[in-house]
Write a structure and sequence with these properties.
The structure is a single chain. 39% of the residues lie in helices and 25% in strands. By secondary structure, the protein is an alpha+beta fold. The protein is elongated and about 90 Å long.
Length: 317
């Protein structure tokens, strides 16, 4: 079925691009075999309108023209659907090559590599890759969570999803119904920002805490999608990036290296413990719980209470 639709879209695009005058629905139906096989005029009209919308979403500029008799015709002018020549210097080519390598572990690896090959075939200069030859560091965005691909597609297509999600202070997951907005990678972890229908509020979910499959649901979004900048700021805030004050924690020696990387100061306490001053923002309590008995919160008292409550909730379950 997917192949048949792709072939139908290709045939429609070729008809619209190949004509010098607008073609009516009747003419398009007589030119494309799949439309001839439509059972009724209503079935054809629904199929044609969906195909036209799909082509426009893919980037094809389709004009709707009304002739002197009042009939509506369609065409896609070649000059409106042709990109200007792309010229890149060696530095720009190197930057694109570096960006393409970022996605080698993800589903986007094929698309990134294919785009790079097309640019090179069109004459993009072959720049020496200093990152590959001289450096032990490679640009990578790790994507290990099975939920990444279905959520990426749901964000792109604006489709609601459901999944089972385990909060940091819960032993068992619970189902969430979410309108996904965007995915963000922060401190080595992927987060989904979206509208939680069950709670009627904006929420952020860590992909590693999603259990089982992500399932798509029919229907349109019920909440307005904010701009990209706002979503990214929300992801950073919920992940603990926005710090309003500092906290003092005791950390067991030779443990908690991510916490050490954020420490403002470190002081030896003896007996295998150290005291760290770290930025304190939303989400820090959930992060500290992950280090278990290797971390003890000294102050502030509200952070200590939040961590204790989370640990008690897990122990109770």
């Amino acid at each position: 079925m997917a192949i048949a639709k792709a072939e139908r879209l290709m045939n429609l695009a070729l008809c619209l691009l190949g004509t010098r005058r607008p073609l009516s629905k009747r003419e398009l139906r007589g030119s494309i075999e799949a439309y001839l096989e439509a059972g009724s005029d209503d079935a054809f009209n629904r199929m044609f309108e969906r195909d036209k919308d799909d082509l426009r979403e893919l980037g094809l500029v389709i004009e709707t023209v009304e002739n002197l008799d009042g009939d509506t015709g369609y065409l896609a002018r070649r000059d409106s659907n042709r990109l200007p020549p792309i010229t890149l210097d060696a530095e720009e080519a190197a930057a694109l090559g570096l960006a393409a390598k970022v996605w080698q572990q993800a589903r986007l690896a094929g698309a990134a590599s294919g785009a790079l090959q097309k640019l090179r075939a069109a004459g993009m200069p072959e720049a020496e890759d200093a990152y590959e030859v001289h450096s032990a560091l490679e640009p990578r965005i790790p994507v290990h969570e099975a939920a990444f691909e279905p959520l990426m597609l749901a964000c792109r297509d604006r489709r609601p999803v459901t999944f089972d999600y385990r909060k940091a202070n819960a032993a068992r997951p619970e189902q969430r119904q979410v309108e996904p907005w965007t995915l963000e990678c922060w401190r080595g972890h992927w987060y989904l920002a979206g509208w939680d229908r069950g709670r009627g509020a904006e929420r952020v979910f860590r992909l590693s805490r999603i259990a089982g499959k992500v399932r798509s649901r029919a229907g349109a979004f019920t909440a307005e999608v904010p701009d990209v900048v706002t979503v990214r700021e929300t992801v950073e805030s919920w992940a603990g990036e926005t710090a309003t004050r500092t906290a003092l924690i005791r950390l067991r020696a030779d443990s908690g290296y991510p916490l050490r990387a954020r420490a403002i100061s470190v002081r030896e306490l003896g007996d295998g413990w150290e005291e760290l001053e770290i930025p304190y923002g939303h989400g820090l309590d959930a992060w500290l719980v992950e280090f278990g008995p290797d971390v003890v919160v000294t102050e502030p008292a509200d952070l200590r209470a939040d961590v204790v409550d989370r640990l008690r909730a897990v122990a109770k379950d």
